[in-house]
Design a protein that fits this description.
Elements lengths: L4 H5 L2 H26 L7 H24 L5 H6 L14 H24 L6 H19 L10 E2 L3 E2 L2 E2 L3 H27 L1 H11 L1 H6 L4 H27 L1 E2 L6 H14 L6 H19 L4 H15 L3 H14 L22
Helix pairs in contact: 2-7, 2-10, 2-11, 2-12, 3-5, 3-10, 5-10, 7-8, 7-10, 8-10, 11-12, 11-13, 11-14
Length: 349
């Protein structure tokens, strides 16, 4: 459907919107693994999404500058910067950029996870800590003139040598992000059905019992947290050429909570629930915010509270419950054709 129906029936603009929604779905799959299966309320996925996005954005800006024959990107020239900052230089290489997108978010999550889970920080404390991390990262980027400040990075012209103004290349980006989503879903399904997936659920439900059996729950949590960060970094990297901009507003507290709302609505314990929930929430935000821009934020928060409070399994849980009710056989009532039990014989006297 993603590779056949969507490109055939959607315009280039709508196809680009769907590609943006698929980026959110990739993040949601990782949250479903960490939160739904591992019980870790990850409110800071915007950090890893932002790391992947800014790495890709820096490479694209440097590549555009090289195509024009300049040494620094256009926004740096306006700001009066004449030399490329040292931490921008490695991202001039496409290979280094791809490796950094794949490894840096996961490495940051690995370090944070070891520092947090080894100290047995969990529950609301972990959620608050991850949310504070997202807020700090966004504030840090706002104060950095070399990354565009609050305006972020935008106006990308090329993507690894391909002209982003060409509609054919825009469709290519959609196919790339759709393929990444399918690979991410397949990898997550394999993890869920493996022995590790069973251990992750066991840690969520009975952490102390898992520790008693000889496993370290911290290592199991760190692995899921790292995988979720890896997925978020990939999504952020593809978000940049598809949408054409990345700014601190896209990676702070509000976007991180929006990722979580989609997962909660779709069903965090299922495989495809986070995907469908993320796409549905993103579509609703795009459609409703055009008519009710100020009310969408309140509706989003109310929706999250209602789902968590009354439908913790999400829409996928409701569908599964309805299916079980349909397949439950009705109680068999005795009919007239059923022979009556034989009367007991009185004992002989």
């Amino acid at each position: 459907m993603l590779f056949g129906v969507a490109p055939a029936v959607l315009s280039d603009f709508r196809l680009g919107l769907l590609g943006k929604f698929l980026c959110f779905a990739i993040v949601a799959v990782g949250i479903g693994l960490a939160w739904g299966r591992g019980g870790m309320l990850t409110l800071g996925q915007g950090v890893f999404f932002g790391i992947g996005a800014y790495i890709m954005a820096m490479h694209l800006k440097v590549a555009d500058a090289q195509l024009r024959g300049d040494t620094v990107p256009d926004f740096m020239q306006i700001a009066g910067l004449r030399e490329l900052p040292a931490y921008w230089v490695p991202f001039s290489s496409p290979l280094v950029t791809v490796l950094a997108i794949a490894l840096l978010p996961a490495l940051v999550a690995l370090i944070l996870g070891l520092g947090v889970f080894k100290r047995r920080v969990k529950g609301a404390y972990f959620a608050i800590l991850s949310q504070a991390l997202a807020a700090a990262f966004a504030i840090l980027l706002v104060g950095q003139q070399s990354t565009g400040g609050s305006n972020g990075l935008n106006r990308f012209r090329s993507f690894f040598g391909f002209d982003l103004a060409d509609p054919v290349n825009k469709r290519m980006l959609f196919f790339i992000v759709a393929a990444i989503l399918l690979l991410v879903v397949a990898a997550t399904r394999q993890l869920m059905q493996s022995r590790y997936g069973e251990l992750l659920v066991a840690v969520r439900d009975q952490e102390e019992r898992v520790r008693f059996l000889g496993y370290d729950p911290a290592n199991i949590k760190v692995a899921a947290y790292t995988v979720a960060a890896f997925f978020a970094g990939l999504a952020g990297a593809m978000f940049v050429p598809i949408v054409g901009i990345i700014s601190p507003a896209d990676i702070g507290i509000v976007p991180s909570i929006a990722f979580l709302i989609g997962v909660a609505i779709g069903g965090r314990t299922t495989l495809l629930g986070p995907v469908l929930g993320a796409i549905g929430v993103a579509w609703a935000q795009t459609a409703l915010s055009e008519n009710f821009p100020s009310a969408w934020t309140y509706a989003q928060g109310l929706l999250f509270v209602v789902v968590i409070g009354f439908f913790p399994a999400g829409l996928a849980g409701l569908a599964a419950l309805r299916g079980r009710r349909r397949t439950t056989p009705a109680a068999v009532s005795p009919s007239q054709d059923t022979p009556a039990p034989a009367p007991e014989m009185e004992p002989a006297r």
